[in-house]
Fold this protein.
Amino acid sequence: MDRIIKGSDFWAGVLFVTFGLAGLWFGLGYPFGTTAQMGPGYFPRVISSALVLIGVAIVVRAVRGTTDAEPIGIWPIRAIVMVLGGMVIFGLVAPHLGFVAAAAAITAIAGLASSEVRIGELLVFTVLLVIAVTAVFIYGLRLNIPVFPWG
């Protein structure tokens, strides 16, 4: 039993199941639709169901002892704060300053989670990623978020 409690696989599986169940719960209020005519609840429920299934598989694998589980160790507080902070900033910035600024903010802030970050590389990566995600989400999927604050 000690091996399970210390196993990072076990806790990762529990986290997947928790987020998956939360996604299913919040998605219940949206119409599901069909595969041909997807409703707003279709994608969240499918992804959340996949998270639950993957989480259960990971937990079962950790419990059966078929994994080389290792102790979790010290939590990377800087990484947790920067990644979660980046997501919060994205949510606050996107409606007011547009998708490009929000995508740049989340990428740059999350990139600072590592103590080994090189600012030049992070800036290049941020620019390239902003171009890619803007092409995919705004122009490819036609996400209804303003691209720039003036547009």
Remarks:
- The first helix runs from residue 2 to 6.
- Residues 77-140 form one domain.
